[in-house]
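ARCHIVE CARD
Drawer: 12
Card no.: 0347
Subject: one protein chain, sequence and derived structure
Cross-reference: see card 0346
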Amino acid sequence: MKNPKKVVLAYSGGLDTSVIAKWLMDKYECEVITFTADIGQGNETKEAKNKAKKLGIKKIYVEDLKEEFVRDYVYPMFRGNALYEGEYYLGTSIARPFISKRLVEIAKKEGADTICHGSTGKGNDQVRFELSAYALNPKIKIIAPWREWAFSSRKDLVRYARMNKISIDFDQGKKSPYSMDANILHTSYEGGVLENPWNEPEEKMWLRTKSLNSTPNKSEYITLEFINGDAVKLNNKKMSPAKIFEKLNTVAGKHGVGRVDLVENRYVGIKSRGCYETPAGTVYAKAHKAIESITLDRELSHLKEDLSNRYSRLIYNGYWFSPERKALQQIIDQSQKNVSGKVRIKLFKGNVIICGRQSPNSLYSEDLSTFEKDSGTYNQSDAEGFIKINAIRLKNKNKN
């Protein structure tokens, strides 16, 4: 690659991206512009600006994007009931295209033709970042240091950081034994003892959810209100999308909701063991399905169910900006026009229990479903002909 003059780096302030910033300046002799997206990961965004300054970075972007992230990415994803391989709520997967979009926008603003990320060559994130960037700007150039530099481990990075007097968490006793990613939707943990799928995670690993032994012995009820498939109120109080998720994280985490330990299939062909905490997302997803259960037509609901797996894989594999994901999103969003109403939820010892649902658009009829006296709308004797017609092919198959 011809040396770029300017590179926009997705910067977290951690070991990898701090080393990358210095490495870019040394190898390419270019100006490095850092971008840190605050999407609910915690205090690291406050530290990132100071760390970038110490590295000699002149242009530093640190942006609070929590509302945009939840409104334009998390909410649409949950309208589609996305759940990868039946368990993963796609917390990292949905964040990468969002960050990539902003990287490309900043590059355009700053007159840079190159962006850079710190994802490894074994993971999914490199795919997600780069497919998103190329979809948005086919001419963009991308540097992925883990695929080209001589470092082979994080021990090498620590050595390089100390040689170059780069302040890192290793030197402050903050080193986590795990590779972690966090945002307002989830926290993920990989690596370390988790690489052996037989090892149970240590209790102290979990940061967002209480141990079941420490959760309240009394259940807690909450209500979520939806309009057109998106939550607009929590406990009858109108809130912004990010505020709803922040509050749900606190309440659900207190009750130990949202822990998942799974072995997933990465897009690059590797099986990976990961642990995830998704307290707000777990509650939200179950509540959304509950309100759909009384507002969606049967066949539309089943169509959505069929599309959900495909939709989830597209997001997991990095195709958020693909034409097929956008087409599926149009179908999904159209399906949500009557998905409005309230859901009552009980939280207790890690469980999310749906206790009630109501909607002005409800298709549920107590008169039709009752086991008591028939209303006259449904003639039970009609069912005999319905069954016989549907049995024709089954009887014909076995007539000999």
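Annotation on reverse: The mean pLDDT is 94. The domain at 187-296+338-358 is CATH 3.90.1260.10 (Argininosuccinate synthetase, chain A, domain 2).
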